[in-house]
Amino acid sequence: MNDRTQAFTGLTEDYRAHRPGYPPEVLDLLRGHVLDGVTDPRLLIDVGSGTGISTRALRAAFGPGPRIVGAEPGHDMRATATDEGGGVEYVNARAEEIPFPDASVALVLTAQAVHWFDRPAFFAEAVRLLEPGGTLAVLSNDRDLRSAFVDEHERLLERYSPGYDRHYRSYDLVGELSATDGLTGTAEHTFDWTRELTLDGYLGMAMSSSRTAAAAREIGQDRLRTELRAIADHHFPDGPVLVPYTTRLALARRVRVGGFSADGAG
After folding, report:
1. For the chain, which residues make up each domain, given as ranges?
2. Chain-centre distance for alpha carbon 244
């Protein structure tokens, strides 16, 4: 598919049903960071919001007060998110060009999506959008590559999904944010946890991936499902399937007037 923004066309039902959420302590930390910088946040934007998993999580974390908008260019993803409701709204927009005024946003979040963006352009757009003291947050759920089960799952994708490499998210996010003009106080927080799935849940999660869809085009969906099922049976013959994750939350603050952030850093 030439238009990367439509990469999840046809995958959204599996994505909505089987992708994980985020640990509550992560959302608590994010909320605290935002409120430390902007005591009365009016507008929060979730960029690359997909089916709205993280957008709805913002509503749960922040309550009914702020306006919460998901920016998502994928037509199927945005339609699925809109159908889910949840007291949020969505706009058709790419990460590098968000249709909101300068200094109008208390939080720019991207969850499970920054690897799809032109990151320098997105970071610059976030700086434009954020009010002084506002938060830029980059959130991701990564399967723990130290796990023998995850290793076998990744080797399957590397074998059949053209161009796939399990280290596709291995970039210096903290360094990139620290080097972005207008941001300060960059830090990354990590949380290890395990997700328990049925076999059908594991297969649904796997099939929600654009990389898995590419592998299915190479060898056929039936064969791919058979090989995924064999991996799960090998590691978890009695069920359930236990998927280890590391959730990463990188936070940075929009510099305040005079060059000082709410954290007291210049």
Report:
1. 4-144+168-196+244-254
2. 17
Contacts of 21 (CB under 8 A, 6+ apart): 53, 57
Q: What are the phi and psi torsion angles at 145 (to 5°)?
A: -70, -10
Closest CA to 71 of 140, 120, 147, 129: 129
pLDDT tens digits, 128-139: 999 999 999 999
Indicate the Cα dihedral angle 234, 240, 246, 249, nearest 10°: 150
Cα gap 52→57, rounded to integer Å: 8
202, 154 Cβ separation under 8 angstroms: no
pLDDT in tens, 72-101: 998 988 999 999 999 999 999 999 999 999
**Whole-angstrom distance between the N-terminal and C-terminal Cα of the chain?**
44
Q: Report cis status (omega within 30 of 0) of the bond before 132.
A: no
Class at the top of the CATH hierarchy for domain 4-144+168-196+244-254: alpha beta
From the number of C-beta atoms within 10 Å of its C-beta (0-12, 13-18, 19+), residue 237 rates as: exposed
Separation CA 206–CA 200 (nearest Å):
10
What lies within 8 Å, CB to CB, of 207 at 6+ separation is: 11, 14, 18, 213, 216, 221, 225
